[in-house]
Design brief:
113 residues; 7 strands; globular
Amino acid sequence: MKNHNDTSPALTTDGLLDRGRGLFGLVAGVPGAPISAVEYNSSRAGKGALFVAVEGYSSDGHRYIRDAVDRGAAAVVVSMARAAEFSPLAEAGVTVLGATNTRAAPVSYTHLR
């Protein structure tokens, strides 16, 4: 049972990597970052959020990573094929996770909490 005074996050990047084995890989940054929310829309990514860059049919979420980071995202999920492009974000303190398919990956987040 969770203590009401416990302010620890329900999810961390370590937890995501551990429970999502095979779905994600650490690209850059410090593992263990607390995650306050999982967002797919960069305009809703606030402090501590995990932004998922979903590869859409008409728009690619990778275009909005900088916006999410500027709004306070602590971590981002990117396509493993584009991981090297975003690994420099670690220098700004952002954890970068790679996924083989960012479109399919969000389905798994709901049961990871």
